[in-house]
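Listing 4. Sequential folding, example run.
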Amino acid sequence: MLSAGCALCFAAAAYAAVQEFSGFLRFGTTVERIQQINADTPTGLSTSSMAMVLNDCSRAVTYARSLEFRYLGEQATRTIFEVCEAKVGAITALSPTNSLAWLTSARLAGQSGNLERLNSDLANSRLVAPNEQWLADLRIELAETYLSDLSAENRAGHDQDLRLMIISGVGLGKMAARYIRHEDFRDRITAIVETVPAFNQNKFINSLNRILRNAGY
């Protein structure tokens, strides 16, 4: 027969397990999954369970202007973002070195028009993970969206992220594609490419030529 102490330990472990895995039990389309985020949705303590909440809340920002999302109604969408604000805020408080959490918080701040917090949280994301390429890639997308609203610190940090993607080689294709699609991006990325070694410059030029060639130019 289990002692009272063991029973309490077992109950605590079972509760923790439910907290961890409940995020993985949400099903459906992206918007349907987002709808299932509510005040009772636990964030869990593991990196993977936190990432599940962060990714769903980040998708909420991405899908905010979609027709399917708008069909949810104003009250439902407001509730989703309020819950996401609370959940993501709890994660940044619990895990202040979680760069993705700061980045998600910055995206939510941009969605709500809080540009001061967008700048603060974007800077924090870069501060705790300056060299993670996949995070730099996500920060670049956000920074380009709010380029005119960035602080001087974040403009410099944005250039740092762009340079990282050029030097790493991982983001060459994306940077080259953005160069072709967005005229206002060309002078800025060219100035950064000119600061990297010739080897990296040539790789960027080759990526540009490959994209143009594949497009029939």
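-- end of first protein; second protein begins --
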Amino acid sequence: MQLHELKPAVGSRKDRKRKGRGVASGNGKTAGRGHKGQNARSGGGVRPGFEGGQMPIFRRLPKRGFTNPNRTEYAVVNLETLNRFEDGTEVTSALLIETGVVKNERDGIKILGNGTLERKLTVKASKFSAAAKDAIEAAGGSTEVV
């Protein structure tokens, strides 16, 4: 057998549906568009959110709230993740990025108290949850807000 003799498995390749090419094709005449109406016309159809003239839901419901452009968003790191570091390590944002724990530092790093910490670490971060701070100090480590 040579490369030019290769053929796809029977039934693995299908011809595309050619719309409007005769009744025998199964997609002839109206080409799957039904009879008349806006959707049957070329360029027909309604815009997203249009409800046939009824007052659409996005106009029936009131506007609410806003998105604060100055919001601070922290990269989150849980205690259980910090167990990968050796005892006595100084955990900084640079180290977390270098080891791939955090991909994007955003506006700083926040340490949360999910999981248990079995290492004695010095952790430097932008913020700590109360539970995380207690757990780090209980393990013999220290926290520092930077």
